Amino acid sequence: MVRLDDDFAARLSGAATAVERALDRVLGSNPREGEIARPVRLVEAMRHATLGGGKRLRAFLAIETARMFDADTEGALRVGAALECLHAYSLVHDDLPAMDDDDLRRGRPTVHRAFDEATAILAGDALQTLAFDILADPATDADPLVRSDLVLGLARASGLGGMAGGQMLDLQAETETPDEVAIRRLQAMKTGALIRFSCEAGALLGRASAEDRARIRRFGEIIGLAFQLADDILDETATTEALGKATGKDSSRGKGTLVGLYGVTPVRAMLDDLVLEAEGVLAPFGDRAETLAAAAQFVAIREV
Amino acid sequence: MVRLDDDFAARLSGAATAVERALDRVLGSNPREGEIARPVRLVEAMRHATLGGGKRLRAFLAIETARMFDADTEGALRVGAALECLHAYSLVHDDLPAMDDDDLRRGRPTVHRAFDEATAILAGDALQTLAFDILADPATDADPLVRSDLVLGLARASGLGGMAGGQMLDLQAETETPDEVAIRRLQAMKTGALIRFSCEAGALLGRASAEDRARIRRFGEIIGLAFQLADDILDETATTEALGKATGKDSSRGKGTLVGLYGVTPVRAMLDDLVLEAEGVLAPFGDRAETLAAAAQFVAIREV
């Protein structure tokens, strides 16, 4: 197994810092071409939702995949920022009183607590729009085909048949205890699809061959699954203080997870297998894939 | 002035029917490539929000502008469907209890009344995503530059600096009675930007010259403004029964409109001027612009 060393930690935090800067730029208060004006309160709510930390895992996966295929750094940072906007929108809406009704996110008040419910709905809405705006902007990639493929990929990963659909299944799971097949589908949609697309976006920026893209898609699937299993373990074992958000909510609401179905120990074993599988999928890329392989391990053993 | 004849009525209802069919197709229950599965309840809520009528003004403007520039009909219908998805998303979210708290839309229960609040939030979210999905899909236009320009134009018209930003200003207007400049900016963002882009999208599909595009943008601005003024008059004068939604809400909440500021009669005079201005802007296109000129008149004198 790859060992997580200082180099990996430096890459992870370096990407997070660079993406934070990119987000700060796209969330300025001056209107862009084609915009009329940017209301201050809405800009502030969107900044509250996106800036100020987080692991930036989705951006990191896009950036590292892009780097493996020698893509332009600036474009990769912009794609990373778009992924984080999309992710932040989903968190803002999931936290709403009508959904998961959470007060705390990354140790800070959620957007509807810091502002109000209407502002939180609009901030989430505008963050989704901004994600597509960034991807379609010529500053992201000179090739319009790459841009429209990025938009289409993000739309398929995050809409009705991806993340939003997964959140719908998750709401229904509160009343209809799902089995393993249903849990896996729900998780593939709710969190897996966007993580998979984050990797694929890097391959698109890097003009990877169809074969390499398929490989990266599979890697993205594995890492998405590992992320969710690790999340379910953390929800069961970590404290609210450590995570900066409420824990134990899934099991107390009777939402199905594989940890709930089989317990923590077998799920840890599944995680080990997934890390090995990820390394196998990346093997043909050799040393170039070292950081992505380390990312799989990081996702599996993370403690926050 | 152009007279509204049977030919115009036939074009308007023909476009509405064709767009309804296009929406029915994109809102099927089978997942597309890149999607995992489509949850039935979410599909139903999205269909409730988008199907079953409405004037389809935004789609009509895109389709008629595209036709004037001899663009492909199928692509124009898809763009029309995308605009109606985006518009429907904004209505679903605006109707939520935390926003305008409306029970009725087009004479039917709003999505959060017919389903529930969480489903309405997700249906709106997924309708926004679907709009971008449709525009970025190669079925809409073979040229990826046109597709990414459509995505970028829609994002700028509907995000932070457009429609969503306008809704934010509208919420704030409940407490901070705005003056004419502020009302005009609010309306240009909340409803004007998307109507303007609807026209521009048709010009993009039709590969219009930069000069013609600028002309169409101006026409779109005029028609957006006329639409809003007519809406404000209707809010003041029509009944809930005639409109199929609550009326008199803007004035009772103290929201600023030009009707509130100056009364109905001067606003009707502004509308007449706008229709004349629209005809002037369209004059260089000659007879080809006959339907668009009629559309301006229709928007100004509409009774629902």
TrEMBL record, chains A, B:
It is an enzyme of class 2 (transferase). PROSITE patterns: POLYPRENYL_SYNTHASE_1 (PS00723), POLYPRENYL_SYNTHASE_2 (PS00444). GO terms for molecular function: (2E,6E)-farnesyl diphosphate synthase activity; dimethylallyltranstransferase activity. Pfam families: polyprenyl_synt (PF00348). InterPro entries: Isoprenoid_synthase_dom_sf (IPR008949), Polyprenyl_synt (IPR000092), Polyprenyl_synt_CS (IPR033749), Prenyl_diphosphate_synthase (IPR053378). Its EC number is 2.5.1.1, 2.5.1.10. It comes from the Bacteria. SUPFAM superfamilies: Terpenoid synthases. The keyword Magnesium applies. The keyword Metal-binding applies. Its cofactor is Mg(2+). Keywords: Isoprene biosynthesis, Magnesium, Metal-binding, Transferase. PANTHER family: FARNESYL DIPHOSPHATE SYNTHASE. Belongs to the FPP/GGPP synthase family. This is Farnesyl diphosphate synthase. It comes from Kaistia defluvii.
